């Protein structure tokens, strides 16, 4: 028999190795991205945020913002270092009370190294002190901070947070928010959720807002300026707060005529989508030059330009529909944008029916007939459009076509059960297009893979036979334009919209 002799030192090392718990894996840096193929650097790995406390001071005259952000989080791995997405100038970072070292990298990464490495699945509190001029900061060649004559606004998709607070900037990491903003007397600060209080001292007024349900970072908004504020309550008891810039000029009346119907629309949509998921509601119109609207949670952002031709209630329907489809249930990856936009557009079609200006079927027939087979419209795949086409008109209109095709395939009973059940099944969470297909199959009892593939994932116009089977296109003849179409199309502004909010598309 051959006997192996182990030296005493080696034996001691072996015993020590055996004594180390299996869980004591080496600490490593958190990933600089959350893993979204459309935006690889967006979000971060290694932790999950549950709450943001933002205490800010903003000077409209100079666009200077200073703040202290406190992030309440939990680690998801053994962390030696982690990133936040942020663009302003940082003066101090503390992790669990101790000063941490930090540096910047990439387009918007704030790299933080805590004094002591962090164990997996433990609470962590991160405090970041910062200041800067948001309008002076760019990432990827653009800014998501909109300077106005009397202040500034943070509202954009898929990103806006990095211009005003450090975050894990991806919809997969939703959190609750407290936003407290100090501004000069006579100026208002608008944000998400409920206005908890205001107080004035020495020429400054503090506005305290709370968003008490999970909220994606791009849905957090801040608007500072001089606003007229209206308040009310929906028939179902939800408090409504709307804000209008005092210098909207000729657009003021049309904006109010549209947005003051927010409560009515939310109550109406609840009949299709189930109870409104939040304890606050409203909208705001700052004096920006953008051409898009955005479903910022509980309080959508609207551009004045969208009311240049008069009121547009259909636009408000779109943004309030997002409170269920996009905000309550958020996408898992940005390629899942169809769940947001296809259903918000379809809500506009349902409103058209409600107003007697064209049924959803008539609108579907019109969209199908309006785009010949060689139209580039059909090359955009709503189920995975790519980042360059994420807000293309086809994602909205072809996306709504897919919703109508589903309705016709499974029948109204199952369809409307899905519309109402989906926001409840994934309430305050995230879901994908694949999750939606599985849910639709479960509720309807029908296999739907072929239908979803035809309408969402093929870069071509569905054949007329498939369209007729789905009752989406009329056989032969011309299809007249429904009366609601111009209002619906107007919510898109210029369909050839630029990336990252430089164009005119509703979001």
TrEMBL record:
One of its GO terms (molecular function) is alanyl aminopeptidase activity. GO terms for biological process: proteolysis. Residues 50-219 form the Aminopeptidase N-like N-terminal domain. The keyword S-adenosyl-L-methionine does not apply. The keyword DNA-binding does not apply. Residues 311-455 form the Peptidase M1 membrane alanine aminopeptidase domain. Its EC number is 3.4.11.2. Its cofactor is Zn(2+). Pfam families: Peptidase_M1 (PF01433), Peptidase_M1_N (PF17900). It catalyses: Release of an N-terminal amino acid, Xaa-|-Yaa- from a peptide, amide or arylamide. Xaa is preferably Ala, but may be most amino acids including Pro (slow action). When a terminal hydrophobic residue is followed by a prolyl residue, the two may be released as an intact Xaa-Pro dipeptide. CDD domains: M1_APN_like. Belongs to the peptidase M1 family. This is Aminopeptidase N. The lineage of its organism: Bacteria, Bacillati, Actinomycetota, Actinomycetes, Kitasatosporales.
